[in-house]
Amino acid sequence: MSLSMTENEITLAIIQALKEGKRKQFQDILEELHPYDIARQYEHLPNKHKNKFLVFLTIEQLTDLIQELETEDQLEVIQKMGIEKSSKVLDMMENDDLASLLTDLDPEQIEELLGEMKQEESAVVQNMMTYPPETAGRVMNNRYVWIPKYYTIREAIAKLKHFAEIAQYLNYLYVIDDEKKLVGVISYKDLLLGSIDDRIEDVMFNRVVKADVLTDQEEVAKLISRYNFVSLPIVQEDDTLVGVVTVDDVIDIFIQEANEDIEKLSASGKSIDFKTNPFVAAYRRLPWLILLLFIGLVSGSIISNFEDTLQSVVALAFFMPLIAGMTGNTGTQSLAVVVRGLVSEDLEFKQVLKLIVRELWVGIIIGITCSILIAIIAFVWRGSFPLGLVVGSSLLLTLIIGTLAGTIIPLVLYKFKIDPAVASGPLITTINDILSLLIYFGIATAFISKLT
Amino acid sequence: MSLSMTENEITLAIIQALKEGKRKQFQDILEELHPYDIARQYEHLPNKHKNKFLVFLTIEQLTDLIQELETEDQLEVIQKMGIEKSSKVLDMMENDDLASLLTDLDPEQIEELLGEMKQEESAVVQNMMTYPPETAGRVMNNRYVWIPKYYTIREAIAKLKHFAEIAQYLNYLYVIDDEKKLVGVISYKDLLLGSIDDRIEDVMFNRVVKADVLTDQEEVAKLISRYNFVSLPIVQEDDTLVGVVTVDDVIDIFIQEANEDIEKLSASGKSIDFKTNPFVAAYRRLPWLILLLFIGLVSGSIISNFEDTLQSVVALAFFMPLIAGMTGNTGTQSLAVVVRGLVSEDLEFKQVLKLIVRELWVGIIIGITCSILIAIIAFVWRGSFPLGLVVGSSLLLTLIIGTLAGTIIPLVLYKFKIDPAVASGPLITTINDILSLLIYFGIATAFISKLT
């Protein structure tokens, strides 16, 4: 195949080969493609050629392909392959990919698929599914090489060579004792540089960084990225080695966690992507909107309590959206700083205090700046000095309180092990809306004689 | 060192060794620690022990340590080490870490540091600094192994062994021709499984996935994560191999990009973390807040244009925060879906149309649901059927428009290569605020005779 072929030219060549039934020619094209590229080709292929495409693939290629597809397409391919091929493919699939495919299916489909597999393979996956979602046990895989501690470097290299096909990353070998307990780790680099007859237990690294099967996936991702590992061994309570989490999973975990933070901060509802159908998307977004609707009613009833004040000075309504909006925004700013800060740092009590004092100062600085500005504008616009004073002093107070609420509430939630990002939609917005209106109309009512 | 020692016990043992001046004992403790652990120990050490700690470290350990520290601490360590040691450490540092240290310094400090280094090392880093920030050229490093295409597998393994110390990940070797052009890649796995006298160019993979030095770092990160690579070769325009970007950098890039998205969506200002001082943090947050203040004034002046309507039906003010808030929120929801969707997918025109139609339907569904709800509530609360109708129909219209604005505006920005996340603060909020108030008071004014 020519190296300079574009993706489209490759597609045309593939269709040509499929039409003419030339499997050799088809395989020549595929040889230089990565699994990701093969999956893209499959996705873009006209439907009428898809069956033939699958027939021409080897079991290894089918496995690679299926691991790169989205759940919907995976199921389509499994169905098209037929029982015999698909059972072989499922056996060869990486455990974590298979577990994540099964997560999205209903129990009947799971049983049917697992039934097609070899018992030892399906047992591994079924075991993984018993761990809670988003834990190490759920995302780990078994593409690693372990060696007994009594091996020599020579024996280790021989075993490594033998398992090169299954181990995705060859950077470390994990060392276990007679009871399968993890006792050490040795890098491939150390194998290369050591002398051939050294015993592994004499040259291995004893203090292994590892994680328990029940560790939260985000913690595992943090460990791997801090230590710059390509894989982290996962052990059971008794230190038995049961799997590894690899760096490619870490990238997915970080993207997933960042998306979750954004979903919560923007109250946009769980897992909506470009392919979600409108009814599902609306259904997922509605709870937040309806909650916000009732929050809006609370604000409305506060305003209605100040109906007399408002009736006598309608101009107060002009500054309402401004004050509520600014308070909400400074709260969201603080919230975002706290939520993202917690992704990379673990907070100690001393730092928490420092952070709150910092945000108090931020609130005071932005409060003073914005309130002087709005007081002058209100005075110039409406020609009323008292109005300027009421609007300015309200904004000063609400900005300080909004900033602190946006800082303290997520920290308290974090302390109680509740995801602080949850705070955004309901809590921060409600509290800041209600407080800002109460302060604004409270101050205005106190000075009502000066305003009219 | 005992394996069961906690971090605190290790700290105590380190202080003990430092006090007694026992370097051997100190090194025994450090032997089992990873660079990340050593950096944490250094950070937590009382100030009076830090100098001795640095004296006891080898140049390799100092290099590892400095690469794990934050800029401020890096500079402190460089100063404490003195010229002679620090020039050696700078020479040994990884290019990308050094470049990122230099990015945060002023020109004088950069010159001083580069002056201490070997010329060939400083030339490499200075060259990296000529690429724009957030491009492949800026984050690449030279911890990879290349081989000429005429090598045999035997020669390749010999070279690999020789360079094992510098190559961080040993998964692939890059193959170049006589002009240093990248012509192929071979995985370590293939070296292990091939026969020892095969020529590299006969067994290598010809179709190399690579990126140009000027590629955006986010694109590079996408490529690496899609293909599950541990490193991606970076080439100049003429295909000369100049570096690799490795998977650990990809994790940092994804975290950085997610943080940038959140900063922009929450309008929280650039790079504020737990350590930013309050004046800097306030200074970075203020521009958005002042912009929002003026946007609030625009809303205020719209309301003031409907002063007569508001004067005759003060109850209209009660629903103002609700309508503006809901419209803003549905816009932010759509925006978040679009911004995060674009992280993992490249949109084609057909999909864009589909997405807009999808969001139109979402807007209609949530619009109908919420407007029926609010119409009933408004009617029951205020006992006015026309008021319920005005509030309900306004909300229906504003929710549909808000949803579409939150979808279309970021897509248009994306099309014109402007980061769509920027849209949040100023654009979506302004447009939705202004439109919702215009619609609400417009409808109310039209039915004013029924409302009073």
Protein traits:
homodimer; 452 residues; MgtE N-terminal fold; CBS-domain; 3-stranded mixed β-sheet; 6 strands; MgtE_N_sf (chains A, B); metal-binding (chains A, B); CBS domain (chains A, B)
Describe this structure in words.
- 2 copies of one chain form a homodimer.
- Chain A has 452 residues and is mainly alpha-helical.
- The first copy, chain A, folds into 3 domains: 133 residues, MgtE N-terminal domain-like (MgtE N-terminal fold, Alpha Horseshoe), CATH 1.25.60.10; 112 residues, CBS-domain, CATH 3.10.580.10; 174 residues, Tetracycline Repressor, domain 2 (Orthogonal Bundle), CATH 1.10.357.
- Chain A has 23 helices and 6 strands.
- In chain A, the strands form 2 sheets. Chain A has a 3-stranded mixed beta sheet with strand order 1-2-3.
- In chain A, α3 packs across α5 and α8 crosses α10.
- At the A-B interface, α13, α15, α16, α17 and α18 of A face α13, α15, α16, α17 and α18 of B.
- Chains A, B: It is a multi-pass membrane protein.
CATH superfamily of the largest domain in chain A: SLC41 divalent cation transporters, integral membrane domain
Question: What value does the Rg of chain A take, in angstroms?
Answer: 30 Å
Percent helix of chain A, as a range, is 55-70%
Shape of chain A: elongated
Task: Give the count of helical stretches of chain A.
Answer: 23
Low-confidence stretches of chain A: none
CATH architecture of the largest domain in chain A: Orthogonal Bundle
Query: What is the number of strand segments of chain A?
Result: 6
| CATH topology label of the largest domain in chain A | Tetracycline Repressor, domain 2
H-E string of chain A: HHHHHHHHHHHEHEEHHEHEEHHHHHHHH
Largest interface: A-B, 115 and 115 residues
Multimerization status? homodimer
End-to-end separation of chain A in angstroms reads 84 Å
